Description:
The protein is α+β, with helices and mostly antiparallel strands and 487 residues long. It is built from 13 helices and 20 strands.
Amino acid sequence: MIEIDGVPFFTAANPDQAPDAIQGGLFFRVGMADEDYGNHGITHLVEHLVFTGMDTRSAHANGMTTDTYTCFLVHGTADEVVDFLGRIAANLANLPLERLEKEKAILRTEETRRNGAWAEARNVRHGMRDYGLSGAPEVGLNRLGADDVAAWVAQYFTADNAVGFVLAEGFEQDLRLPLPRGERREVPTPSLNPAVDPLPRAYPFASNLVVVEALVERGPATAVFAELAGARFLHELRETDALSYSVRVEAEVIGPYTVRISCVADTLPENGPGVAGCLVDALAALAAGQFGDDEFDRALAAAVEPFDAPLAEQLLITSQVIDRLFGLDHEPLAEKRDAYSAVTREAVAGVARAVRDTALWVSPVRRLEWAGIRNADFTRAPVEGHRFSQAGGVGSITVSNEGVTLAIPDSGEYTVAFADCVGVHAYPDGRRTVVGVSGVTLGLEPTLYEGLSPALLAALIDSHVPPGRLIPMPARRPGEIPTAGGG
Protein backbone atom coordinates (compact mmCIF):
# COMPACT_ATOMS: atom_id res chain seq x y z
CA MET A 1 0.00 0.00 0.00
CA ILE A 2 1.19 3.51 -0.84
CA GLU A 3 -0.13 7.00 -0.12
CA ILE A 4 -0.98 9.65 -2.71
CA ASP A 5 -1.77 13.17 -1.48
CA GLY A 6 -2.93 11.78 1.85
CA VAL A 7 -5.08 8.98 0.34
CA PRO A 8 -4.07 5.34 1.03
CA PHE A 9 -3.85 3.34 -2.20
CA PHE A 10 -3.77 -0.43 -2.60
CA THR A 11 -1.85 -1.61 -5.63
CA ALA A 12 -1.37 -4.92 -7.41
CA ALA A 13 -0.15 -6.07 -10.79
CA ASN A 14 -2.46 -5.72 -13.78
CA PRO A 15 -4.20 -9.14 -13.97
CA ASP A 16 -4.75 -8.97 -17.74
CA GLN A 17 -1.25 -7.74 -18.53
CA ALA A 18 -2.93 -5.63 -21.21
CA PRO A 19 -2.20 -1.89 -21.49
CA ASP A 20 -5.87 -1.00 -21.97
CA ALA A 21 -7.27 -3.18 -19.15
CA ILE A 22 -6.02 -1.40 -16.03
CA GLN A 23 -8.55 -0.92 -13.23
CA GLY A 24 -8.71 1.75 -10.57
CA GLY A 25 -11.09 3.23 -8.05
CA LEU A 26 -11.56 5.91 -5.43
CA PHE A 27 -13.80 5.14 -2.43
CA PHE A 28 -15.22 7.53 0.19
CA ARG A 29 -16.69 6.47 3.53
CA VAL A 30 -20.09 8.09 3.04
CA GLY A 31 -23.37 6.62 1.86
CA MET A 32 -27.11 6.71 2.26
CA ALA A 33 -26.93 5.53 5.88
CA ASP A 34 -25.17 8.79 6.77
CA GLU A 35 -28.14 10.83 5.54
CA ASP A 36 -31.44 11.58 7.19
CA TYR A 37 -34.88 11.65 5.61
CA GLY A 38 -34.74 15.41 5.03
CA ASN A 39 -31.55 15.29 2.96
CA HIS A 40 -31.87 11.78 1.54
CA GLY A 41 -30.39 11.73 -1.93
CA ILE A 42 -27.56 14.16 -1.25
CA THR A 43 -24.74 11.60 -1.58
CA HIS A 44 -26.20 10.23 -4.82
CA LEU A 45 -26.49 13.82 -6.07
CA VAL A 46 -22.81 14.46 -5.34
CA GLU A 47 -21.88 11.27 -7.19
CA HIS A 48 -23.71 12.53 -10.28
CA LEU A 49 -22.29 16.05 -10.06
CA VAL A 50 -18.74 14.72 -9.85
CA PHE A 51 -19.14 13.02 -13.24
CA THR A 52 -19.72 16.35 -14.98
CA GLY A 53 -17.42 16.56 -17.98
CA MET A 54 -16.26 12.96 -17.61
CA ASP A 55 -18.46 11.32 -20.25
CA THR A 56 -15.98 11.77 -23.09
CA ARG A 57 -12.87 10.93 -21.05
CA SER A 58 -13.41 7.21 -20.50
CA ALA A 59 -16.01 4.80 -21.84
CA HIS A 60 -15.46 2.43 -18.91
CA ALA A 61 -16.17 4.54 -15.84
CA ASN A 62 -18.93 4.33 -13.30
CA GLY A 63 -19.98 5.57 -9.87
CA MET A 64 -21.99 3.91 -7.13
CA THR A 65 -23.59 5.05 -3.88
CA THR A 66 -24.23 2.34 -1.30
CA ASP A 67 -25.36 2.40 2.32
CA THR A 68 -21.87 3.02 3.65
CA TYR A 69 -19.57 4.13 0.84
CA THR A 70 -19.48 5.96 -2.48
CA CYS A 71 -17.04 4.85 -5.14
CA PHE A 72 -15.81 5.90 -8.57
CA LEU A 73 -14.43 3.10 -10.76
CA VAL A 74 -12.55 3.12 -14.05
CA HIS A 75 -11.22 0.55 -16.51
CA GLY A 76 -8.87 1.63 -19.30
CA THR A 77 -5.30 2.55 -20.12
CA ALA A 78 -2.89 3.81 -17.46
CA ASP A 79 -3.32 7.38 -18.74
CA GLU A 80 -7.13 7.07 -18.66
CA VAL A 81 -7.11 5.70 -15.12
CA VAL A 82 -4.80 8.44 -13.83
CA ASP A 83 -6.77 11.11 -15.68
CA PHE A 84 -10.13 9.82 -14.38
CA LEU A 85 -9.12 9.57 -10.72
CA GLY A 86 -7.44 12.97 -10.83
CA ARG A 87 -10.45 14.62 -12.43
CA ILE A 88 -12.81 13.03 -9.89
CA ALA A 89 -10.76 14.61 -7.11
CA ALA A 90 -10.59 17.92 -8.97
CA ASN A 91 -14.36 18.02 -9.47
CA LEU A 92 -14.90 17.31 -5.78
CA ALA A 93 -12.56 20.15 -4.89
CA ASN A 94 -14.48 22.47 -7.23
CA LEU A 95 -17.95 20.95 -7.53
CA PRO A 96 -19.88 22.05 -10.65
CA LEU A 97 -22.89 23.32 -8.70
CA GLU A 98 -24.26 25.10 -11.77
CA ARG A 99 -25.60 21.67 -12.81
CA LEU A 100 -27.40 21.11 -9.52
CA GLU A 101 -30.97 21.33 -10.83
CA LYS A 102 -30.23 19.34 -13.99
CA GLU A 103 -28.72 16.48 -11.99
CA LYS A 104 -31.69 16.53 -9.61
CA ALA A 105 -33.97 16.07 -12.61
CA ILE A 106 -31.92 13.11 -13.80
CA LEU A 107 -32.02 11.47 -10.38
CA ARG A 108 -35.80 11.85 -10.19
CA THR A 109 -36.09 9.69 -13.29
CA GLU A 110 -34.22 6.77 -11.75
CA GLU A 111 -36.57 5.74 -8.95
CA THR A 112 -34.57 2.52 -8.69
CA ARG A 113 -34.62 1.96 -4.93
CA ARG A 114 -38.21 2.73 -4.07
CA ASN A 115 -40.29 -0.27 -4.89
CA GLY A 116 -40.65 -3.93 -4.14
CA ALA A 117 -40.09 -6.36 -1.31
CA TRP A 118 -36.39 -5.48 -1.07
CA ALA A 119 -37.16 -1.82 -0.38
CA GLU A 120 -39.90 -2.76 2.07
CA ALA A 121 -37.49 -4.98 3.97
CA ARG A 122 -35.04 -2.10 4.45
CA ASN A 123 -37.72 0.41 5.40
CA VAL A 124 -39.50 -1.90 7.82
CA ARG A 125 -36.38 -3.22 9.51
CA HIS A 126 -34.66 0.11 10.14
CA GLY A 127 -37.41 2.67 9.71
CA MET A 128 -37.08 5.83 7.65
CA ARG A 129 -33.48 6.47 8.76
CA ASP A 130 -29.88 5.30 8.21
CA TYR A 131 -29.97 1.85 6.55
CA GLY A 132 -33.71 2.09 5.88
CA LEU A 133 -33.21 5.03 3.52
CA SER A 134 -31.80 2.83 0.76
CA GLY A 135 -35.37 1.71 0.09
CA ALA A 136 -36.92 5.19 0.39
CA PRO A 137 -37.56 7.91 -2.22
CA GLU A 138 -34.88 10.59 -2.42
CA VAL A 139 -37.21 13.32 -1.18
CA GLY A 140 -34.31 15.46 0.03
CA LEU A 141 -33.73 16.51 -3.57
CA ASN A 142 -36.74 18.81 -3.19
CA ARG A 143 -35.07 21.00 -0.55
CA LEU A 144 -31.32 20.67 -1.08
CA GLY A 145 -29.46 23.74 -2.27
CA ALA A 146 -25.89 24.49 -3.32
CA ASP A 147 -24.81 25.33 0.23
CA ASP A 148 -26.14 22.00 1.53
CA VAL A 149 -24.27 20.04 -1.12
CA ALA A 150 -21.03 21.99 -0.65
CA ALA A 151 -21.14 21.42 3.11
CA TRP A 152 -21.73 17.67 2.59
CA VAL A 153 -18.72 17.42 0.28
CA ALA A 154 -16.53 19.32 2.73
CA GLN A 155 -17.56 16.96 5.54
CA TYR A 156 -17.28 13.61 3.80
CA PHE A 157 -15.38 13.78 0.50
CA THR A 158 -11.92 14.40 1.91
CA ALA A 159 -8.51 12.77 1.58
CA ASP A 160 -8.71 11.42 5.13
CA ASN A 161 -12.08 9.79 4.40
CA ALA A 162 -10.93 8.10 1.19
CA VAL A 163 -9.13 4.96 0.04
CA GLY A 164 -8.16 4.06 -3.52
CA PHE A 165 -6.76 1.21 -5.59
CA VAL A 166 -5.07 0.74 -8.94
CA LEU A 167 -4.24 -2.61 -10.53
CA ALA A 168 -0.97 -1.34 -11.94
CA GLU A 169 2.43 -0.24 -10.76
CA GLY A 170 4.51 2.87 -11.35
CA PHE A 171 1.55 5.23 -11.85
CA GLU A 172 1.82 7.18 -8.61
CA GLN A 173 4.20 9.85 -9.91
CA ASP A 174 1.54 10.95 -12.43
CA LEU A 175 -1.55 10.92 -10.17
CA ARG A 176 -2.61 14.00 -8.22
CA LEU A 177 -5.61 14.11 -5.91
CA PRO A 178 -6.40 17.72 -4.91
CA LEU A 179 -8.73 16.74 -2.05
CA PRO A 180 -9.00 18.76 1.17
CA ARG A 181 -7.90 17.16 4.41
CA GLY A 182 -10.57 16.09 6.89
CA GLU A 183 -11.22 13.15 9.19
CA ARG A 184 -12.26 9.53 8.85
CA ARG A 185 -16.00 9.10 9.40
CA GLU A 186 -17.20 6.12 11.39
CA VAL A 187 -19.76 3.73 9.95
CA PRO A 188 -23.30 4.46 11.27
CA THR A 189 -24.83 1.99 13.68
CA PRO A 190 -27.96 0.38 12.17
CA SER A 191 -31.23 1.43 13.80
CA LEU A 192 -34.08 -0.92 14.60
CA ASN A 193 -37.59 0.17 13.75
CA PRO A 194 -39.73 0.15 16.92
CA ALA A 195 -42.42 -1.58 14.86
CA VAL A 196 -40.26 -4.73 14.62
CA ASP A 197 -38.67 -4.67 18.06
CA PRO A 198 -38.15 -7.38 19.21
CA LEU A 199 -37.19 -9.55 16.25
CA PRO A 200 -37.94 -11.86 14.50
CA ARG A 201 -40.92 -10.26 12.79
CA ALA A 202 -42.98 -10.66 9.66
CA TYR A 203 -44.32 -7.99 7.34
CA PRO A 204 -47.05 -9.04 4.86
CA PHE A 205 -46.37 -7.54 1.45
CA ALA A 206 -48.02 -8.47 -1.84
CA SER A 207 -45.28 -9.45 -4.30
CA ASN A 208 -43.75 -12.43 -6.05
CA LEU A 209 -40.81 -12.54 -3.64
CA VAL A 210 -40.11 -13.82 -0.18
CA VAL A 211 -37.32 -11.80 1.43
CA VAL A 212 -35.59 -12.74 4.68
CA GLU A 213 -33.06 -10.26 6.07
CA ALA A 214 -30.92 -10.35 9.19
CA LEU A 215 -27.87 -8.52 10.54
CA VAL A 216 -25.22 -10.78 12.05
CA GLU A 217 -21.65 -10.53 13.27
CA ARG A 218 -19.08 -10.42 10.51
CA GLY A 219 -16.68 -13.31 10.24
CA PRO A 220 -15.61 -16.27 8.11
CA ALA A 221 -18.45 -18.44 9.46
CA THR A 222 -20.96 -15.98 8.02
CA ALA A 223 -19.56 -16.46 4.53
CA VAL A 224 -19.67 -20.23 4.91
CA PHE A 225 -23.26 -20.02 6.17
CA ALA A 226 -24.26 -18.00 3.09
CA GLU A 227 -22.84 -20.71 0.81
CA LEU A 228 -24.47 -23.51 2.82
CA ALA A 229 -27.86 -21.78 3.09
CA GLY A 230 -27.89 -20.84 -0.58
CA ALA A 231 -27.40 -24.44 -1.66
CA ARG A 232 -29.83 -25.86 0.90
CA PHE A 233 -32.61 -23.35 0.18
CA LEU A 234 -32.28 -23.79 -3.59
CA HIS A 235 -32.46 -27.58 -3.23
CA GLU A 236 -35.53 -27.45 -0.98
CA LEU A 237 -37.47 -24.77 -2.89
CA ARG A 238 -36.64 -25.64 -6.49
CA GLU A 239 -35.64 -29.27 -6.72
CA THR A 240 -37.75 -30.74 -3.92
CA ASP A 241 -40.89 -28.58 -3.64
CA ALA A 242 -40.80 -26.79 -7.06
CA LEU A 243 -41.94 -23.53 -5.43
CA SER A 244 -39.19 -21.20 -6.66
CA TYR A 245 -37.11 -20.76 -9.76
CA SER A 246 -34.44 -18.47 -8.32
CA VAL A 247 -33.14 -18.51 -4.74
CA ARG A 248 -30.10 -16.58 -3.62
CA VAL A 249 -28.45 -15.91 -0.27
CA GLU A 250 -26.05 -12.96 -0.06
CA ALA A 251 -23.72 -11.76 2.69
CA GLU A 252 -23.13 -8.01 2.34
CA VAL A 253 -20.58 -6.27 4.55
CA ILE A 254 -22.19 -3.08 5.85
CA GLY A 255 -19.75 -2.24 8.63
CA PRO A 256 -16.47 -3.33 10.17
CA TYR A 257 -18.22 -5.97 12.28
CA THR A 258 -21.65 -6.33 10.65
CA VAL A 259 -22.95 -8.35 7.70
CA ARG A 260 -26.43 -8.23 6.21
CA ILE A 261 -27.67 -11.68 5.26
CA SER A 262 -30.34 -11.50 2.56
CA CYS A 263 -32.31 -14.46 1.27
CA VAL A 264 -34.51 -13.75 -1.75
CA ALA A 265 -36.74 -16.42 -3.29
CA ASP A 266 -39.12 -15.80 -6.18
CA THR A 267 -42.52 -17.44 -6.29
CA LEU A 268 -46.09 -17.08 -7.42
CA PRO A 269 -48.00 -15.03 -4.81
CA GLU A 270 -50.30 -17.96 -4.09
CA ASN A 271 -47.25 -20.08 -3.27
CA GLY A 272 -45.91 -17.53 -0.80
CA PRO A 273 -47.03 -19.49 2.29
CA GLY A 274 -45.33 -22.63 0.97
CA VAL A 275 -42.07 -20.81 0.28
CA ALA A 276 -42.08 -19.07 3.67
CA GLY A 277 -42.86 -22.34 5.44
CA CYS A 278 -40.10 -24.17 3.60
CA LEU A 279 -37.58 -21.47 4.50
CA VAL A 280 -38.65 -21.48 8.15
CA ASP A 281 -38.09 -25.22 8.34
CA ALA A 282 -34.82 -25.18 6.40
CA LEU A 283 -33.39 -22.36 8.52
CA ALA A 284 -34.43 -24.16 11.72
CA ALA A 285 -32.63 -27.28 10.49
CA LEU A 286 -29.41 -25.36 9.84
CA ALA A 287 -29.68 -23.68 13.24
CA ALA A 288 -29.89 -27.15 14.81
CA GLY A 289 -26.79 -28.28 12.92
CA GLN A 290 -28.77 -30.61 10.70
CA PHE A 291 -26.57 -30.57 7.61
CA GLY A 292 -24.30 -33.23 6.26
CA ASP A 293 -20.52 -33.21 6.28
CA ASP A 294 -20.55 -33.16 2.49
CA GLU A 295 -22.78 -30.04 2.48
CA PHE A 296 -20.50 -28.33 4.96
CA ASP A 297 -17.36 -29.27 3.05
CA ARG A 298 -18.77 -27.89 -0.21
CA ALA A 299 -19.80 -24.63 1.47
CA LEU A 300 -16.41 -24.27 3.14
CA ALA A 301 -14.60 -24.92 -0.14
CA ALA A 302 -16.74 -22.32 -1.94
CA ALA A 303 -15.95 -19.72 0.74
CA VAL A 304 -12.21 -20.44 0.62
CA GLU A 305 -12.00 -20.67 -3.19
CA PRO A 306 -11.45 -16.92 -3.90
CA PHE A 307 -8.32 -16.95 -1.73
CA ASP A 308 -6.82 -19.76 -3.82
CA ALA A 309 -7.48 -18.14 -7.19
CA PRO A 310 -4.35 -17.33 -9.26
CA LEU A 311 -5.24 -13.63 -9.11
CA ALA A 312 -6.59 -13.58 -5.54
CA GLU A 313 -4.79 -10.35 -4.66
CA GLN A 314 -6.38 -8.55 -7.59
CA LEU A 315 -9.83 -10.13 -7.20
CA LEU A 316 -10.05 -9.28 -3.49
CA ILE A 317 -8.50 -5.82 -3.61
CA THR A 318 -11.83 -4.00 -3.25
CA SER A 319 -12.58 -5.93 -0.04
CA GLN A 320 -9.25 -4.69 1.32
CA VAL A 321 -10.15 -1.14 0.29
CA ILE A 322 -13.49 -1.36 2.11
CA ASP A 323 -11.87 -2.82 5.23
CA ARG A 324 -9.43 0.09 5.35
CA LEU A 325 -12.29 2.51 4.70
CA PHE A 326 -14.14 1.03 7.67
CA GLY A 327 -11.14 1.54 9.92
CA LEU A 328 -9.82 -2.03 10.06
CA ASP A 329 -6.13 -2.84 9.99
CA HIS A 330 -4.84 -4.57 6.88
CA GLU A 331 -4.96 -8.35 7.21
CA PRO A 332 -2.84 -10.37 4.76
CA LEU A 333 -4.88 -12.61 2.48
CA ALA A 334 -3.02 -15.69 3.74
CA GLU A 335 -4.20 -14.99 7.29
CA LYS A 336 -7.76 -14.45 6.08
CA ARG A 337 -7.67 -17.73 4.21
CA ASP A 338 -6.46 -19.55 7.32
CA ALA A 339 -9.37 -18.09 9.29
CA TYR A 340 -11.88 -19.28 6.69
CA SER A 341 -10.32 -22.74 6.58
CA ALA A 342 -10.69 -23.03 10.37
CA VAL A 343 -14.48 -22.48 10.39
CA THR A 344 -16.35 -25.22 12.25
CA ARG A 345 -19.79 -26.73 11.85
CA GLU A 346 -20.88 -25.29 15.20
CA ALA A 347 -19.82 -21.79 14.16
CA VAL A 348 -21.97 -22.04 11.02
CA ALA A 349 -24.93 -23.34 13.03
CA GLY A 350 -24.43 -20.36 15.37
CA VAL A 351 -24.76 -17.97 12.42
CA ALA A 352 -27.94 -19.79 11.39
CA ARG A 353 -29.37 -19.27 14.87
CA ALA A 354 -28.47 -15.57 14.75
CA VAL A 355 -30.22 -15.24 11.38
CA ARG A 356 -33.29 -17.08 12.66
CA ASP A 357 -33.52 -14.95 15.81
CA THR A 358 -33.00 -11.54 14.15
CA ALA A 359 -34.75 -12.03 10.82
CA LEU A 360 -37.34 -9.82 9.18
CA TRP A 361 -39.64 -11.75 6.83
CA VAL A 362 -41.26 -9.80 3.99
CA SER A 363 -43.60 -12.02 1.99
CA PRO A 364 -47.12 -12.42 0.57
CA VAL A 365 -48.11 -14.26 3.77
CA ARG A 366 -50.58 -12.77 6.23
CA ARG A 367 -49.12 -14.41 9.33
CA LEU A 368 -46.20 -16.56 10.46
CA GLU A 369 -47.21 -16.80 14.09
CA TRP A 370 -47.27 -20.59 13.80
CA ALA A 371 -43.47 -20.31 13.56
CA GLY A 372 -43.20 -17.95 16.52
CA ILE A 373 -42.84 -14.91 14.25
CA ARG A 374 -45.21 -12.05 15.02
CA ASN A 375 -46.22 -9.38 12.54
CA ALA A 376 -44.69 -5.92 12.68
CA ASP A 377 -46.75 -3.62 14.90
CA PHE A 378 -47.16 -0.02 13.72
CA THR A 379 -49.91 0.94 16.17
CA ARG A 380 -49.55 3.86 18.53
CA ALA A 381 -52.00 5.47 20.95
CA PRO A 382 -54.04 8.23 19.23
CA VAL A 383 -53.47 11.84 20.20
CA GLU A 384 -56.13 14.11 21.69
CA GLY A 385 -56.49 17.64 20.39
CA HIS A 386 -58.12 19.54 17.53
CA ARG A 387 -60.39 17.11 15.70
CA PHE A 388 -61.65 17.69 12.17
CA SER A 389 -64.33 15.44 10.70
CA GLN A 390 -64.29 14.24 7.13
CA ALA A 391 -66.81 16.08 5.01
CA GLY A 392 -69.60 13.65 4.19
CA GLY A 393 -67.77 10.74 5.83
CA VAL A 394 -66.85 9.23 9.16
CA GLY A 395 -63.08 9.67 9.04
CA SER A 396 -61.23 12.37 10.97
CA ILE A 397 -57.94 14.12 11.60
CA THR A 398 -56.80 14.96 15.13
CA VAL A 399 -53.83 17.27 15.68
CA SER A 400 -52.20 18.17 19.00
CA ASN A 401 -48.82 19.44 20.16
CA GLU A 402 -47.72 15.80 20.42
CA GLY A 403 -48.65 14.54 16.97
CA VAL A 404 -51.29 13.63 14.41
CA THR A 405 -53.88 10.84 14.25
CA LEU A 406 -55.66 9.96 11.02
CA ALA A 407 -58.79 7.82 11.35
CA ILE A 408 -59.75 5.99 8.15
CA PRO A 409 -63.13 4.22 7.88
CA ASP A 410 -62.88 0.41 7.76
CA SER A 411 -59.11 0.64 8.23
CA GLY A 412 -58.27 2.05 11.65
CA GLU A 413 -56.36 4.84 13.33
CA TYR A 414 -52.79 5.76 12.45
CA THR A 415 -50.65 8.07 14.55
CA VAL A 416 -47.32 9.83 14.08
CA ALA A 417 -45.84 11.65 17.06
CA PHE A 418 -43.92 14.81 16.22
CA ALA A 419 -41.02 13.45 18.28
CA ASP A 420 -40.88 10.50 15.85
CA CYS A 421 -41.49 12.52 12.69
CA VAL A 422 -38.64 12.30 10.17
CA GLY A 423 -40.20 14.61 7.59
CA VAL A 424 -43.26 16.49 6.38
CA HIS A 425 -43.95 16.93 2.66
CA ALA A 426 -45.39 20.42 2.23
CA TYR A 427 -47.45 21.05 -0.93
CA PRO A 428 -48.35 24.55 -2.16
CA ASP A 429 -52.08 23.64 -2.09
CA GLY A 430 -51.88 22.88 1.65
CA ARG A 431 -51.55 19.09 1.70
CA ARG A 432 -49.19 17.78 4.35
CA THR A 433 -47.75 14.26 4.29
CA VAL A 434 -46.39 13.40 7.72
CA VAL A 435 -43.78 10.62 7.75
CA GLY A 436 -42.94 8.79 10.97
CA VAL A 437 -39.69 7.04 11.74
CA SER A 438 -41.50 3.68 11.67
CA GLY A 439 -42.62 4.33 8.09
CA VAL A 440 -46.23 5.23 8.93
CA THR A 441 -47.17 7.96 6.46
CA LEU A 442 -50.23 10.18 6.91
CA GLY A 443 -51.56 12.06 3.88
CA LEU A 444 -53.56 15.03 5.16
CA GLU A 445 -55.81 16.76 2.61
CA PRO A 446 -57.36 19.97 4.01
CA THR A 447 -59.98 19.98 1.26
CA LEU A 448 -61.57 16.82 2.67
CA TYR A 449 -62.23 17.95 6.26
CA GLU A 450 -64.74 20.38 7.70
CA GLY A 451 -63.26 23.54 9.18
CA LEU A 452 -59.73 22.68 8.07
CA SER A 453 -58.24 25.22 5.67
CA PRO A 454 -54.82 24.86 4.03
CA ALA A 455 -53.47 27.72 6.13
CA LEU A 456 -54.78 26.21 9.37
CA LEU A 457 -53.35 22.76 8.61
CA ALA A 458 -49.97 24.30 7.81
CA ALA A 459 -50.04 26.27 11.07
CA LEU A 460 -50.91 23.19 13.11
CA ILE A 461 -48.24 20.98 11.54
CA ASP A 462 -45.30 23.10 10.38
CA SER A 463 -44.52 24.75 13.71
CA HIS A 464 -43.64 21.35 15.19
CA VAL A 465 -41.26 20.32 12.43
CA PRO A 466 -37.58 21.37 12.38
CA PRO A 467 -36.63 23.28 9.19
CA GLY A 468 -34.51 20.41 7.85
CA ARG A 469 -37.53 18.08 8.00
CA LEU A 470 -40.03 20.35 6.22
CA ILE A 471 -39.71 19.30 2.59
CA PRO A 472 -41.24 21.56 -0.09
CA MET A 473 -42.96 19.55 -2.79
CA PRO A 474 -43.80 20.60 -6.36
CA ALA A 475 -47.25 21.91 -7.12
CA ARG A 476 -49.86 19.33 -8.07
CA ARG A 477 -52.08 19.61 -11.09
CA PRO A 478 -55.65 20.72 -10.29
CA GLY A 479 -57.03 17.28 -11.07
CA GLU A 480 -54.71 15.73 -8.46
CA ILE A 481 -56.19 17.76 -5.59
CA PRO A 482 -59.20 15.93 -4.13
CA THR A 483 -62.41 17.72 -3.22
CA ALA A 484 -65.09 16.73 -0.71
CA GLY A 485 -67.52 14.40 -2.44
CA GLY A 486 -65.43 14.46 -5.62
CA GLY A 487 -62.94 11.68 -4.89
